[in-house]
Amino acid sequence: MLFMQPSVPALPASLDFHGKTVLVTGANSGLGRAACLHYLQHNVSTLIITVRRLSEGEVVKAEILAQWEGKNEDDQPKILVFELDLSSHSSVTAFAAKLKAEVPCLHIALLNAGIFLLDWKVSPHTGNEMSFQVNYLSNAILSLLLLPLLRSTAEATGPPTPSYLSIVASQKYSDSRITGNPISESTTVFEACNDEKTFQPWSLYADSKLFVRLFVKELATHVDSSTVIVNCMCPGMVKTNLARSLSLPLRLVGRLVLSVRARSPEVGSRVLVYAAGGAGKHSHGQMLVVYENLPVISWIESKEGELMQAKLWRETLDALEKNSSGSIVSSTLHL
Ligand SMILES: NC(=O)c1ccc[n+]([C@@H]2O[C@H](COP(=O)([O-])OP(=O)(O)OC[C@H]3O[C@@H](n4cnc5c(N)ncnc54)[C@H](OP(=O)(O)O)[C@@H]3O)[C@@H](O)[C@H]2O)c1
User: Fold this and answer.
1) Which of 25, 28, 29 gets mutated to test ligand 1 (max ligand atoms within 8 A of its CB)?
2) Matching PANTHER family, A to Z (predicted)?
């Protein structure tokens, strides 16, 4: 039945994260938490989890470690809890700096944290519209800040093994208003996304995930896949708390649809872990659904899509330069 989603096979038993350090953002619920459990089952050595409130991180850490009970204590993974709030540039840069100072290597970065909003909301920290800030801009800036560590980790590994930088996206990107009504040449992406007068509730999420898709496609052209594989993925529709901020009637309708159609977080997060650790070089610049690359919608490859991608890239690098030390990052990119 077309309404139902295809099944997701179990992760390959050959996936082995022994000796690897893996970062999962937004690890306290839904897909992030479930992805952590998969990494654990596949022998991860160090798991770095981020949360907005450290107290919640400690609870998740205890829950994850409880899964280890009865197994060899010498092999028990190390779990580090870090604070990260994607609505704030200073939190993103502070997190990246702390990670660099405290963690010598990073093999996999799974940038999972995200939100779904239908209301107009602005980050009090940055003044940017919240979905744009959290789902796109902070994840893009964090990606760029993590690249040097991901690259140096790959280069220090013998034989050289690429690291992974993987962002959770959504096939819903194709519903973005921007594909039918591109941002004009004279308007910046920031101006368009921060204009309350023209915002469209049902496009906020799709717009932010379209930007993620374009960013991954562009970033992949600046990074050698033999050092860092850059990709994104869509877990399909998954029963999580993502719609928590919607009105009660919408949540009730959503719950009904989810109960029939959605994957469990355990199943949906298989797609995350496969993309961020198993997909290999052919996933560079791509979006994975189940365990295969999903072709981009034709708009992305049109002249308009290419212009939008270039515009977004320029503005993202400017934002990085403004908010942190962009020069360090530039040296790791082919610009
Ligand atoms: N569920 C689906 O059907 C579906 C489909 C496609 C893509 N996705 C994507 O999957 C990812 C995970 O979502 P989910 O479905 O697992 O929903 P979820 O259970 O609501 O998890 C979202 C995670 O993101 C964190 N987060 C939210 N705002 C944040 C911020 N400002 N700074 C840092 N962390 C923040 C949340 O932390 P708090 O608990 O502190 O809010 C939580 O850990 C998202 O990127 C989402 O867009 C989900």
Assistant:
1) 29
2) DEHYDROGENASE_REDUCTASE FAMILY PROTEIN, PUTATIVE (AFU_ORTHOLOGUE AFUA_3G08550)-RELATED, RETINOL DEHYDROGENASE
Task: Write out the catalytic residue numbers.
Answer: 205, 209
Query: What pLDDT digit, counting tens, does each position of 23-68 carry?
Result: 999 999 999 999 999 999 999 999 999 999 999 999 999 999 998 8
Asked if residues 146 and 50 have their Cβ atoms less than 8 Å apart, the reply is: no
**E strand spans, the chain:** 21-24, 46-51, 78-83, 108-111, 163-168, 228-234, 287-289, 292-294
How much distance in Å is there from the Cα of 31 to the middle of ligand 1? 7
Q: Is residue 325 pLDDT above 90, yes or no?
A: no
**Parallel, antiparallel or unpaired: strands 46-51 and 78-83:** parallel
What amino acid is encoded at 170 in this protein? S
164 near 240, Cβ under 8 Å?
no
CA angle 147, 152, 158 (to 5 degrees): 135
CB neighbourhood size of 128 (10 A): 20
Chain-centre distance of CA 146, in angstroms? 13
The top-level CATH class assigned to 21-330 is alpha beta
Q: How many residues in total does the chain contain?
A: 335
pLDDT band at 20 (very low <50, low <70, confident <90, very high): very high
Which range is least confidently modeled, 69-73, 177-181, 216-220, 245-249?
Answer: 69-73
Cα distance between residue 296 and residue 312, in whole Å: 17
| Residue with CA nearest ligand 1 atom 6 | 170
Residue 43 neighbours by CB under 8 Å, 6+ apart: 16, 17, 18, 75, 77
How many angstroms separate the alpha carbon of residue 168 from the centre of ligand 1?
A: 9
Contact of 205 with 131, CB cutoff 8 Å: yes
What 8-state DSSP symbol labels residue 278? Answer: T
Radius of gyration over every alpha carbon of the chain, rounded to an integer in angstroms: 19
Q: Please return the burial class of 122, using the count of CB atoms within 10 Å of its CB with bins 0-12, 13-18 and 19+.
A: middle
Q: Domain locations in the chain? A: 21-330
Q: What are phi and psi of 22, to 5 degrees?
A: -125, 135
Expressed in angstroms and rounded, the spacing between residue 88 Cα and the centre of ligand 1 is 16
